[in-house]
Amino acid sequence: MTVNMTLLTDLYQLTMVGGYYLLGKKDQIANFDYFFRKIPEDGGFCVAAGLEQLIDYIQNIHFDDGDIDYLKSLHLFPPEVLQYFQELHFTGDLYAVPEGTLVFPQEPIVRVTAPLPEAQFVETALLNILNFQTLVATKAARVCLAAEDDPVIEFGVRRAHGPNGGLSAARAAFIGGARATSNLMAGRIYGIPVRGTLAHSWVESFSTELESFQAYGKIYPRNCILLVDTYDTLRSGVPNALKVGKEIQERKQGELSGIRLDSGDLTFLSREARKMLDEAGFDRTRILGSSDLDEWLIESIKKQGAEIDIWGVGTRLVTSYSCPALGGVYKLSAIFEDGHLLPKLKVSDDPEKTTNPGVKKVLRFYDEKNFMRGDVIIFEEESVPDGQPMKALHPMLSHVSKTYPGHFKKEEILVPIIKGGKRVYQSPALKEIQERTFQSLTCLRSEHKRLRNPHIYHVSLGEKLFQKKQELIQAAVGAD
């Protein structure tokens, strides 16, 4: 049964939408921007994810009879507003960066231009979908960078935030670079490769560890990965795995694919296990490490010389354990008045919370080696001719600026997704999105990818946008 997700919203969205309708604002065009202010864990980048689910939500907005009956039971909305809700659907424009694109603070990742009630209504679902998937995709990219060339498998569904959280996390982790998931539903729905081993309960359900390994090896001889830490990793687990590996070879059914270490000192145990495997002639048997891993632990374990070939990462990935939320926001930046879309901004005592006004686009500049050198936010109607240098200003400080040379390649990173309520964007396959993440990361210089104290990637304002922002700030301060 397909569930209508239209009511995945906050009550205040509908009270505002109803208010706009009653005040005659239902056709007033507005522009909203989705962006975030801070990269999780003081990192150097984020990976955009969740766009496909957002498109699906927006294109299927409709209040069915059950929704209207529920809203009527709240005794908040007059009959004419409930009638308007029944007719509500998205007729506007949506621009966004494609999934797998690297994104940075303060720049628009999604731009919505639509009648004010419609643009307002999509806020909650948009934030719910994009904040979580971007957070997990970013975490996965960091984990995969720490693992270097070693495959990472997402193992987190049992600790994820509910069934939908498990599915979204598996998808986002794959976008960020995970090679596979243990989540079969994610495998079926999204086509993500699935992987798995066995649990300690399998080993404990037999009289001996060796018996449990032998049984598993007979059933799955061509995909035999044995969990060796149930009792004693080096004294029984690995030796028993070797015995079973030899039995599989003798039966000419395959070979011991791998062993998994799920507890203890992974560096020490993996190094000792590697020696034992190699000495017994199992140099192709891989060692999989798991146990509450994240990018920090993987980086540390690798620096210590661990002999781990594959990393199973669960809880700390799918929950983004050390930073459980991305602070993405959705802010009004322009509204149609006096025949024009007039720039608007929110002013705050915290300069970082003062928004950038107007309908905007983002130019990304690449140097001669195809490295990303910075992003510049400018008004949508502005053009920058090829070969012309561009001055870019700090979002808050007029005396801080830089100039991008005319020979730098530039790219508009926001692309049209929905126009006039109709989808115009052909979504790539999930594997292609993952490849975009990999390609994007190759274009980011290493100093931006450090886990600790990464170099700041510059997001600046064009001169016209900077000037308009200052004018509106002064007007707002003067009005007070």
Characterise this structure.
The protein has 480 residues and is an alpha/beta fold. It has two domains: 11-136 and 324-479, nicotinate phosphoribosyltransferase (Alpha-Beta Barrel), CATH 3.20.140; 150-318, Aldolase class I (TIM Barrel). It has 16 helices and 21 strands. The protein has helices spanning 11-22, 51-59, 65-73, 79-87, 116-121, 123-147, 162-176, 184-190, 200-204, 209-219, 233-250, 266-279, 295-303, 315-318, 430-442, 463-479, and strands spanning 29-36, 46-47, 93-96, 102-103, 110-115, 152-154, 180-181, 224-227, 256-261, 286-289, 310-313, 328-337, 340-343, 360-366, 372-379, 390-393, 401-404, 409-412, 415-419, 422-423, 459-462. The chain has a seven-stranded antiparallel sheet. The protein has a six-stranded parallel sheet with strand order 7-6-11-10-9-8. Helix 7 crosses helix 15 and helix 11 runs parallel beside helix 12.
Secondary-structure topology with pairs:
Layout: H1 11-22, E1 29-36, E2 46-47, H2 51-59, H3 65-73, H4 79-87, E3 93-96, E4 102-103, E5 110-115, H5 116-121, H6 123-147, E6 152-154, H7 162-176, E7 180-181, H8 184-190, H9 200-204, H10 209-219, E8 224-227, H11 233-250, E9 256-261, H12 266-279, E10 286-289, H13 295-303, E11 310-313, H14 315-318, E12 328-337, E13 340-343, E14 360-366, E15 372-379, E16 390-393, E17 401-404, E18 409-412, E19 415-419, E20 422-423, H15 430-442, E21 459-462, H16 463-479
Parallel strand pairs: 6-7, 6-11, 8-9, 9-10, 10-11, 15-21
Antiparallel strand pairs: 1-5, 1-12, 2-4, 3-5, 3-19, 12-13, 14-15, 14-18, 16-17, 16-21, 19-20
Helix pairs in contact: 1-4, 2-6, 3-4, 6-7, 6-13, 7-15, 10-11, 11-12
